[in-house]
Amino acid sequence: MYNASHELREACGVVALALPAGGEGARRASWGLYALQHRGQESAGIASCGPGEALRRRVGLGWVHQVFGGEEFGEVPGPWAIGHTRYATAGGSGLEQAQPFATSRLALAHNGHLTEVPGEGIGEGSDSAAILRWLDRRVAAGEGLTAALVAFMAAARGAYALVLLTPEAVYAARDPWGFRPLALGRFSGGGWAVASESCGLEAMGCAEVVREVRPGEVVRLTAAGVESLQARRAEAGAFCSLEWLYFARPDSVLGGRRVQAAREALGRQLAREAPAEVECVVGVPESALPAAQAYAAALGLPYEAALVKNRYIGRTFIQPTARLRRAGVRLKYGVIGEAVAGRRVALVDDSLVRGTTAGPLVEALRSAGAREVHLRIAAPPVRHPCHMGVNMTTYEELVAHGRSVEEVRQRLGADSLGYLGLGGLGAALDAAEEPPGRCEACFTGRYAL
Description:
The chain has 449 residues and is α+β, with helices and mostly antiparallel strands. It folds into two domains: 12-235, 4-Layer Sandwich (Glutamine Phosphoribosylpyrophosphate, subunit 1, domain 1); 259-432, Rossmann fold. 27% of the residues lie in helices and 25% in strands. It has 13 helices and 23 strands. It has helices at residues 25-35, 64-67, 127-140, 145-155, 198-204, 241-247, 259-273, 289-299, 322-332, 358-367, 405-412, 422-429, 441-444, and strands at 12-18, 43-49, 56-61, 80-86, 101-102, 107-116, 157-165, 170-174, 183-186, 192-195, 208-212, 217-222, 225-230, 239-240, 253-254, 257-258, 280-283, 307-309, 333-335, 344-349, 372-377, 416-419, 438-439. The strands form six sheets. Strands 3-2-4-1-10-9-11 form a seven-stranded antiparallel sheet. A six-stranded antiparallel sheet has the order 5-6-7-8-12-13. A four-stranded parallel sheet has the order 17-20-21-22, with helices on both faces. The longest helix has 15 residues, at 259-273. The two termini are 16 Å apart.
């Protein structure tokens, strides 16, 4: 979501589920949010109800376990629930931005970014709040939520994975371009769920990950079953490439393919395109590790787990300011000096956005005794901002924009710098069954919308 100054406000993880009577919807929703914690650490929230019951809502700032430690589930009873976890942003980070948002009739949680809601500008607050206002007015006027969603999707443009809760049913919808992930699952004892990633479904106890919600599709969930409506024809696929590279958990399945396997393929392709004359390979935890290990194996080099991650520090890529990101790198990583001392090292990362992680890590490896540090990136250079909900909104903050590879290398202090090419990215990722296309705008500047 953007405010008037185009500062990114959020991208996040969402869950929704409909259990039979007596089921603890909020508790299971919290399990799903725990699994999606990597998608956001700023706030968490759950809304719940049962058939015909009033909506209840609890939100709070911080990690999921800080908001839902146990006793709080009494505030959100009922077998149906939706949940949301939000990542740190450059603005609007107070409790008023914590989702789900709710009225007396409807609760909504959203992952993505819309520039305009049908019939109105975003105005005050966020695009998520504007979507809720628009839908709530239609429902208050007597229109069913399914019909309101069809009307919304016919006119809206942008990225969205929505989950909605009413006293009649739980709903989920995905934009026609499929920018953001959303998966559908089934419980063995009855009931259905959706989550941003399959790992969220598994954490909630789904016995089966059925499929992905299709671009342009609305699904309606109750304990009795699921109803599907193709509310709008699917457009040319524009699934965010950074989900493969960075955002998604490695055990999640996207497009019928395990993320771990896709990242390993990226590392092997990187070894073909940008080999390095080094003595060992080091990966940046966590999301780059599969690519780094595959890169080492492809080149017949030893892999060294020389960077140690403090698991109690959130993702520095999604911290709100450059100063906090740099401080986060120092707090987040330690170096095992014996693994790199006196050696030529290839440092492999999954992407290079601002350089505020890569530069300090190159310096840290040198300080630990590395003789040379050669930086390898398992993605093309990010040279363009994202307008669909990823926290890189200006050209000025992107280290590769307007700079040659050599200029970036010098800026980061590496002995050499090599990227995966755009064609190599496609060669590594095209084995996924669906979605059938990817958004590569941050690499190419060619935007789907």
